[in-house]
Specification:
388 residues, Growth Hormone, Chain: A, 2 domains, 16 helices, mainly alpha, 0% strand, 85% helix
């Protein structure tokens, strides 16, 4: 199979995975509340999934380096389907927690394995484009999923969970029937010689993990607080916010699906990462001046365009520089992404309680720090290459 066709299949796989995940986002809080969850318990329920992803993504990445991408991806998607059906059948709060733990543990395999698959099948020149296509699939899935969940939740709150489970089963069949294994026997034998996890983390590439962590914290903080901010500043309700996030998501998906590949080919991943971080910082700054629907939509889209450049470029650069298996590297990156999503919402909420502009000021600060970390990475890399 040629790489264009495979990328199309991987796009479909990640799109359906994220649609299934997104369907339950607007429903889970109300579903948990019906089963007696307090606001604190709801927060724990949401965090549980990210904690499991943080803990297990590197493990699944390493396993995919050993046994292949396809079986690990099938485990991840099957685990996601199982968790959705368990959520639909839950009658007590502990059952929701069990379903989220199982879902987080097993579905932690999906993102690092798909990203490693892209690294397997693309040349270094086309790596950024491939990573961008996967990023676009994730973004579009997050747009359509919550919309579908909102529509189908009106009659019975369990229906979106069944829909997510069915979507995951269809994706499982797509992978099982259509997708070929990308890890060659030669590649698998080379992975056995990989350095330890600690050695991989001591490399200059570790700076890129920290950079992604900061970016993830700032994004999660924005997502957790912008609804309150937009209401306080401009009186915007849930319908307007839905449109705003849809516009931002579409802009980000267009950038990742098309622009990232062209930009990384022309400028290199490093320059694109810098442009993305600066764009995010500008977006955070503009958000402070939101006055109405139009300014909120424009300013959040500026942020989305910048933010959309970062993750695909970081993934591409890490896999190019990897001295260990692609799965190990992409697993670590996914883990840091999840850690940011654990810390970001409570941090953003706490800062918002101090002053409503604080989450966005902290976003600017984290962006500046991320840029500084990138320059440290470059200096360290250049110094090592100079010694070599």
């Amino acid at each position: 199979m040629n790489s264009k066709k495979v990328l199309g299949i991987l796009f479909a796989v990640m799109f359906f995975v994220m649609v299934g995940f997104g369907i339950i986002i607007p429903v889970l809080p109300f579903y948990a509340e019906e089963l007696g969850a307090s606001p604190f318990e709801l927060g724990l329920l949401m965090a549980t999934y990210s904690v499991m992803q943080f803990l297990f993504a590197p493990m699944w990445g390493r396993i995919s380096d050993r046994i292949g991408r396809k079986p690990v991806l099938m485990i991840g998607i099957a685990g996601l389907a199982l968790s959705f059906f368990l959520l639909a059948l839950a009658t007590q709060l502990w059952m929701l927690f069990a379903a989220r733990i199982i879902g987080g543990l097993l579905s932690a395999a999906n993102m690092p394995t798909v990203t490693a698959y892209v690294a397997d099948i693309t040349s270094e020149e086309d790596r950024g484009k491939g990573m961008g296509i996967i990023g676009a699939a994730v973004g579009l899935g997050f747009i359509f999923g919550p919309a579908i969940g909102g529509v189908f939740s009106s009659g019975n709150l369990a229906i979106p969970f069944y829909l997510s489970g069915i979507s995951s089963l269809i994706t499982f069949l797509l992978v099982a029937v259509v997708l070929k294994e990308s890890l060659t026997e030669k590649g698998a034998s080379q992975e056995k010689k990989r350095p330890s996890l600690l050695e991989a983390f001591k490399s200059p590439n570790a700076n890129l993990f920290i950079l992604q962590w900061f970016v993830s914290i700032s994004l999660a903080g924005l997502e957790a607080t912008f609804a309150y901010f937009a209401y306080d500043r401009a009186g915007l309700g849930t319908v307007e916010l839905g449109y705003i996030f849809m516009i931002m998501g579409l802009a980000g998906a267009i950038v990742q699906g098309g622009l990232v590949g062209q930009m990384t080919k022309r400028l290199g991943e490093g320059k694109v990462i810098q442009i993305g971080i600066i764009g995010s910082a500008v977006g955070f700054t503009l958000i402070l001046f939101v006055q109405d629907f139009l300014t909120a939509a424009i300013f959040l889209t500026v942020f989305g365009l910048g933010n959309g450049l970062i993750r695909p470029s970081v993934s591409s650069l890490l896999t190019k520089k990897a001295t260990s298996g692609y799965g190990q590297v992409t697993g670590l990156l996914s883990s840091f992404d999840s850690l940011g999503r654990i810390i970001g919402p409570p941090l953003g909420g706490m800062l918002y309680g101090i002053a409503i502009f604080m989450p966005y000021v902290s976003g600017i600060i984290l962006s500046v720090l991320a840029l500084g970390i990138y320059y440290l990475y470059m200096n360290r890399t250049n110094a090592l290459e100079g010694h070599a």
